[in-house]
Amino acid sequence: MNREEIKEIQIGLKNFRNKIFAKNKSQFEIYNKYEIIGNSNNKIQEINFSYKSFNGCEHEDLLKILIDRLKSLQRTIYSCKENERALVKCEEALMWLNNKKRGT
Questions:
Q1: How many structural domains does the chain have?
Q2: Do 93 and 63 contact (CB within 8 A), yes or no?
Q3: Domain membership of residue 78 as a residue range
Q4: Residue 68 three-state SS
Q5: Phi-psi bin for 14: left (phi > 0), alpha (psi -120 to 50), beta?
Q6: Are residues 41 and 71 in the same domain?
């Protein structure tokens, strides 16, 4: 794989535990594969997105996982206003992506 096809994702605050790399750029300049690498350089997870088949993860899948996790955190001692705000924004993002699919 060419070095040009891999880029490190750095959005928001620097995460000292994991690094995220985007790979496999499509003809539309969209990355289709992401790898999460732990701080000891071990691969934690690989996520594949597929726009032509149902073999890959969709954006909505990741949001649903985040929504469930944030709701779970809000039922524990880790409940806080920041989690609540993040939950609302994830639910809003899911709503917009679902509206796009319906064509509304």
A1: 2
A2: yes
A3: 59-104
A4: helix
A5: beta
A6: no
What secondary structure letter does DSSP report for 103?
T
Q: Say if residues 18 and 36 touch (Cβ distance below 8 Å).
A: yes
Q: Tell whether 48 and 69 lie within a shared domain.
A: no
Of the CA atoms within 13 Å of residue 17, those in its CB half-sphere come to 1
**pLDDT by residue (tens digit) across 16-74?**
677 888 887 777 777 888 888 887 777 778 888 776 555 677 888 889 999 999 999 99
CB 47, CB 20: distance < 8 Å: no
pTM across the whole model:
0.71
Give me Rg for the CA atoms of the chain.
16
The angle that helices 81-102 and 59-74 make with each other, rounded to 10 degrees, is 150
